[in-house]
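Continuing the batch. This is chain 6 of the set; chains 1 through 5 are on the previous pages. Same settings as before, nothing changed between runs. Recording input and output for traceability.
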Amino acid sequence: MTSNSFGLALTEQTAVTEKIEPTWRWLYKLGSVAALASVLIIPITVAVYILWPPAGSVIGHFEQFQRNWLVGLLGMDLLYLLTNIVLIPTWLALYVALRRANASLMALALTLGLVGTVALITARPILEMQALSARYAAATTAAQQATYLAAGEALLAIYHGTAFNTHYLLGTIALLIVSVVMINSESFGRRIAYLGIAANLITLGFYLPVIGIYISIFSVLFYWIWYLLIARHLWRLGP
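Output for chain 6:
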């Protein structure tokens, strides 16, 4: 099967009319509120990134914690982590809302999305770095400081390592699947589906050399609009 025929197999279905089930209305509302919360957190995250750029070294992170513990936490992606955790009810609500359009794809998307969220928790050793910073500040010998710096280097390797890339790729693929399923859902429709596809394809530009980080930042605008539309649609499903 060619890639084109595979894509057609995903989208060549008649539009599905979802029956709103009263049992799930509370989840639709919760998912909507969670998506709206992420919409509010995203611009704050961008502002924090501009005002207090993350440190580029272990000693830089230690110094951020020692100057201001909150800036230290933010410099370790606290808001990004919170955004992904807050979105868990949205993942569940999207599964329930879209499972009639394609249950198997939505089960796959939900699984990938939740695994990606757990991977991000593993990849952001925020409190561990704060604890090491405090111990480094209290150290009385150069040998003790060297030990805490080495431990910090190990945590920073995790920060940029396999767990984070697992989160990034699985989360993006999961949201692409959700966007494809939305195409055949009357509850969401093609406009929001194509916006989601665009947002997640742009996000994959993160892996381009040199300009990848800027492409990833640019995709935030698309996500902001997309989550806002998702919040509105989920709210309508739970009257």
